[in-house]
Amino acid sequence: MKYYSTRDRRKAIPAKEAIFRGPADDGGLYVPEYIPSFSFEDYLHASYSELACAVLETFFEDFDASYLKESAQAAYKEFDRDNAVGYTELGDVTVAELFHGPTAAFKDFALQMLPYLMKESAAGRKVRILTATSGDTGKAALAGFKDVENTDIFVFYPANGVSTMQKRQMTTQEGENVHVYGIDGNFDDAQRTVKEMFQDDALREEGRASGIEFSSANSINIGRLVPQIVYYIYSYLELVRRGTIEMGETVDICVPTGNFGNILASMYAKRMGLPFGQFICASNKNHVLTDFINTGVYDTHRDFYKTTSPSMDILVASNIERYLQLILKRDEKVKEKMDELKERGRFDIPVDLIRRSKLVGYWTTDAEGEARIKDVFERYGYLMDPHTAVAYDGVKKHASPRHVLLMATASPYKFPETVADALNLPKEEDTEALLREIEKVSSEPIPKALEEVFRKPERFKESIKIDEMPLVVKEGFDD
Ligand SMILES: *Cc1c(COP(=O)(O)O)cnc(C)c1O
């Protein structure tokens, strides 16, 4: 199966080349020529890594099957659950906990795998990974690419837009090939500037002359998206194994959404044959997606808010482009919409098309989110992080008639200030002390990955201006 740019169908390339490149040269994103069907029923008793291998083989035919098998085994063995995902039932909602990986974020599912895919795709070429992060991608990418041969990685995060824990996780990162910078802007600024660097021919030529190619660890890389399909299939089968649903029964999906990568993976899973009903896209106060889903108008001319769910503080959701490709189908239409977004900061599509794709959207204030954290804790003794709380609020607002699979994207320990506030725990200035307060009431211990950041020195304290980003990535270029 080949991959082509959302903006130009004519230039199809093999999976390995698409992964190596990250975004397409024309600014589009690589998508598969078709979405393959998958007999998921056959994998009812498969382990997580067996299933991952089968799904990856289906999409990435140019990889050796035994390489994918070994990679999947290695990638998912670092997770703190037998089969990578944890599950908790909250009435007619099943929470799929995607945060038991080495950095306590759902991004680990893709970013523990991507370095294996990248290494094989690069085939000896030197890769410099450029990453914009709203908090979690940065750390997960750093952990995945740390000391990977022929690779280095540059991470840019909003200096004042991530949680204390997220920042500390990144600034204490070990490894010889890692670079971390705070920037004086928000996530959209970081993402836009990284995209501009990919489109900057002069900069890329300079890199090539020094034997360095840029690639991406953001969900604009198709190598990020495909591994994320796996946990939807695994979770559906888990609901069957637990007797929560019968094989073939339809469930709804709810995802706390920022860049639209995670929820898009669930839509791909449906097209592979999974019986998913509606897709509930949950947003915070930066509800550009909720408005788009309800009106067909995507309009970025609006205030940007810093919320207590910072990984969703995004106004330009990259993977909307792949969603447009799914529903508009024609590359020239997608290009037209994306050009409009770039030039005028908005585009619109018929809202009927959105309805037909079964996508619905809700948004949640910080106060509503905290109320959900408290309510769920009192009712079920279960602690949610602020992103998961936004999703839970979306489920309740939607009042789904079916069982709902809710994606929990971060550990509550990653956002201790908000969680402690929601539960009225004693106020502690010191973050570590705050984690201990939460641990007293939680049924789960502090994840090792988070505890250890307090023992490690902070290596990266530098903040730079947005326009310095293209300068720092030239490190090691020959003049
Ligand atoms: C990245 C992230 C999200 C948003 O995921 P997208 O794939 O960008 O929509 C939600 N919650 C957390 C905790 C995240 O780290």
Protein described:
The protein is 43% helix and 17% strand. It is built from 21 helices and 16 strands. It has helices spanning 15-21, 48-59, 65-76, 108-111, 114-122, 136-145, 164-171, 187-199, 201-209, 222-241, 261-271, 288-295, 320-328, 331-344, 351-356, 366-380, 386-398, 416-422, 431-441, 448-451, 469-472, and strands at residues 2-5, 8-14, 30-32, 86-90, 93-97, 126-132, 151-158, 178-183, 212-216, 251-256, 276-283, 297-299, 346-348, 359-363, 404-408, 463-464. The strands form 4 sheets. The protein has a 6-stranded mixed β-sheet, with helices on both faces. β6, α6 (136-145) and β7 (151-158) form a beta-alpha-beta unit. α1 (15-21) packs across α5 and α16 packs across α17 (386-398). The protein is globular. The chain starts with a strand and ends in a 7-residue tail after the last helix.
Characterize the largest beta sheet: strand count, sense, and whether it forms a barrel: 6 strands, mixed
- Radius of gyration over C-alpha positions, nearest whole angstrom: 21 Å
Shape verdict: globular
Low-pLDDT sequence parts: none
C-alpha end-to-end distance: 40 Å
Please report which band the strand proportion falls in: under 5%, 5-15%, 15-25%, 25-35%, 35-45% or over 45%.
15-25%
Strand order, main sheet: write it out: 4-5-15-10-11-14
- Give the names of the bound compounds: pyridoxal-5'-phosphate
The tally of beta strands, per DSSP, is: 16
Structural class: alpha/beta
Number of contiguous helices = 21
Mean of pLDDT: 96
Helix fraction, binned, reads 40-55%
